[in-house]
Each structure stands twice: as C-alpha cells, then as structure tokens.
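We both want to read discrete structure tokens more fluently, so let's practise on a single case. Would you write everything just below, so we can both look at the same thing?
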Amino acid sequence: MAIPLDPTTTYRTVVLGIAGNPAVRRLLTVNGRRLALRFVAGETLADALRVADRLHEEGVFSTLNLLGEMVTAEELARRFKDQILELVDAVADRPWARYVSVKLTALGVDIGEEFAFRQLGEILGRARLRGCFIRIDMEDSAHVDVTLRLYRRLRAEGYDQVGIVLQSYLRRSEQDLESLLPLRPNIRVVKGAYKESPKVAFPSKRQVDENYLKLARRNLGAGNYTAIATHDEGIIAHLKAWTAQAGIGRELFEFQMLYGVRPDLLRALAREGYTARAYVPYGHDWYGYFARRIAERPENLLFVLRGIVRSALRPARV
C-alpha cells in the first residue's frame, strides 16, 4: 500500500523533480544566477568573507561552505580540497569563530572511501593547526553510511574538532544517534532537503518535526554540543523553553539557519543572547543548492518566479 504524503512533502518532491529537468536547469542557470544571491554569498571566497564579515557585525556567526557535490574526477576533487584548505586558512585570520562545512561528495567519496579519507585528513590536519572546526555535511540517504564511517575513523584518529549532521526526516537517524553517543558527538540536527523515498524518509511534516525534537533533546540531554539548524519557529520556541527548564546552558547549543532564509529571526536570536550562526555557501556550482532552497519553502519559489518574470518584462538595453 502506498504511503500517503503530506502537502509539504509533496511540494518538495514536485519542485525537486522539476528542478532536475534539463530545460528547467538551463533556464534557472541563465536567469537564476542573480536570484541565487539571496541564498548564496557569491562565487568567490572573497564574496563569502565579505558576507561573513557583515554578519559578524550584526552579531551573527558563520559557517562557510564551498559549493560542490557528486565529484567523480580525482583532479577536480583534489582541487576542491585545495580550495577548502585555502578557506580554512582564510577564516583562521578572521576575528569571528573559525568554522567550515564540507561535503564528502565534493571531496571524492564516490571515487573511493580511502581517497576521501585522505582528503579529509589533510583538511582536518590543517584545521587543527589553524584552530578551525570542520562540520561534515550529511547528503542524500545513499551516502549516510560512508559519512558516518569516515566520521568515526576521524574521531579514532584523534580529530575532535569535527562534527556531523543528522537529518530528522530519515527513519534511521534515531538509531544512528544512539550509536554515535559514546563519541560525545557535536551534531547539527536538520530536517533534510534531499528527495527521498517514503521507505527511508518520514512522509509527513509532523513525523519529521517530532523526530527533530527527539534527536535534539537526546543529544542535548546527553551533554553533547548541538547545532539546532532550523527556520521553524515552533521548534525553536520549544527547544528554548525545554533547555531552560532542563537547566541546559546556552554554551551547549546554538541556532543555525541558511543564509538568506529568515535573517530577521537569526538576528533576533543573537540579540537574545543565543549563539546564532548562518550557513554561508559560495562557489560556481550553486544550482543544486539553489534548487533545494526553492523546494524547502513555497515563499522561496515565489521569490524566484517573480524575479524571472521581472527579468523577462524588463526592457532590453539599446
């Protein structure tokens, strides 16, 4: 029997399906670059640093991410690694907290697990010298096992300045968290933005939200640092009240949001004295990230459609 999908899940599935169409990709790649700047800092490291500097002036920290995924050529994967090393050095020279997010598929995990482990080892070695924290992003469900394996290997090698991500829409995440707890993991909890089968992902927003709270409370209750990464005001309000009631200090958690999504709410949290951090992506390979942001909220899709219409109606310069 088919598992029914709620409207939120259906919307995300439809939008991601459309975004994968080659014709739509061409349209958005040509007309969406300017619109993507709402969610992407720019195409260069200098662009990203300017955005992070501005956010720091507003009391908001950053984690920078060089966009790229599904790399299958060693030369390109090594180039990504070198650029991330450059990024680590750059943030180490800034006054704000040193924090970088990386994706394993950009570093060549689909080429080979050992290859990716060596790449990560170089990054973590540089990060240790430069006092930088590295967060390994979680990608689609097909990459969860290898991501967790590499995280465990890095921790066994003595790298403690590294964190992981768990996605509350995946059915397996509660079990994954329990298996990680002996490592005292620094975990970012997110809902999840990839297109997944209902067999592996919860089909309703209610289930995803309930699992989100379960994961966040469990990791916090175990005394582990937790990044509460969500734009959901209900979840934020719940965890603010729950941590206060449970006597969990603010030094054990922070709130994170995607750059360009609810910046007003993130600034408000910073003014309240919480650690607030924006996920700031940059780079030339912005389309996949941009498509997932459109799929997350109907408001984002409307923003893009209005921009495309305005561009089409704008008189040509002569």
The first helix runs from residue 7 to 19. The longest strand covers residues 276-282. The CA atoms of residues 13 and 40 lie 22 Å apart.
